[in-house]
Amino acid sequence: MARAADERPPGPAAEEQLQQQHVACQVLPERLAEGKPGQGFLSSFFTNNQKCQLMLLKTLETNPYVKLLLDAMKHSGCAVNRERHFSCEDCNGNVSGGFDASTSQIVLCQNNIRNQAHMNRVVTHELIHAFDHCRAHVNWFTDVRHLACSEVRAANLSGDCSLINEIFRLHFGLKQHHQTCVRDRAILSILAVRNISKEVAQKAVDEVFESCFNDHEPFGRIPHNKTYARYAHRDFQNRDRYYSNI
Ligand SMILES: [Zn+2]
């Protein structure tokens, strides 16, 4: 998602990142508004915010994709704190969430995240960007290929392109549908935050696709569903245990 530069105060180490307000993300198909026309702005704000906080809590405590990513972040020296690193906010358009590299904060769009499954996917997607930000020096704003790589990984590993999501999008039936979905979503995510042509975004994604699509860290595999994610989490914990015993 894209945010105006003045919406968020710059982070402490962020001089060069002043114009780098948002690395962001997932653009979902427009959803039907479920607004309650009779409610005032404040009451709907609090309701959405409370719902967002509760769903976030449940995601952090129960979702296997997220639990693995939180462990991996901690293991890489970037422990995630719910109050410090997540922010439930109203967002423009139909954006669901974003990763703010300047503050290392994940923004959750409380007005657009509609249910627990959606929250699970958004948090997973954004945590993959946070993981990439933690493990490598990512030039989010100076090299579009870095952004493209993280978007490919997020689309590939977060469940954004899992079969059930694809069926709902009526794209089912293509043999290479997972790769196609990952590529398309990565391109859409780049276009949501960068003022570049579709051709430039496609070229960036194609240049990095093979290596980034095959980079499954920290999952070790493509977690097509929660069962795979649970196995991946178990393997990660064992891997951690193994290395810590050396
Ligand atoms: Zn993204």
UniProtKB/TrEMBL annotation:
Pfam family of the protein (one): Peptidase_M76
Keywords carried by this UniProt record: Hydrolase, Metal-binding, Metalloprotease, Protease
GO terms (BP aspect): mitochondrial protein processing; mitochondrial proton-transporting ATP synthase complex assembly
Coiled coil: none
One MF annotation (Gene Ontology) recorded for this entry: metal ion binding
Cross-referenced InterPro entries: Peptidase_M76_ATP23
Region (Disordered): 1-20
Protease is among the record's keywords: yes
GO cellular component terms, semicolon-separated: mitochondrion
The EC number(s) this enzyme carries: 3.4.24.-
Family: Belongs to the peptidase M76 family.
Name this polypeptide is given: Mitochondrial inner membrane protease ATP23
Protein source organism: Enhydra lutris kenyoni
Organism placement in taxonomy: Eukaryota, Metazoa, Chordata, Craniata, Vertebrata
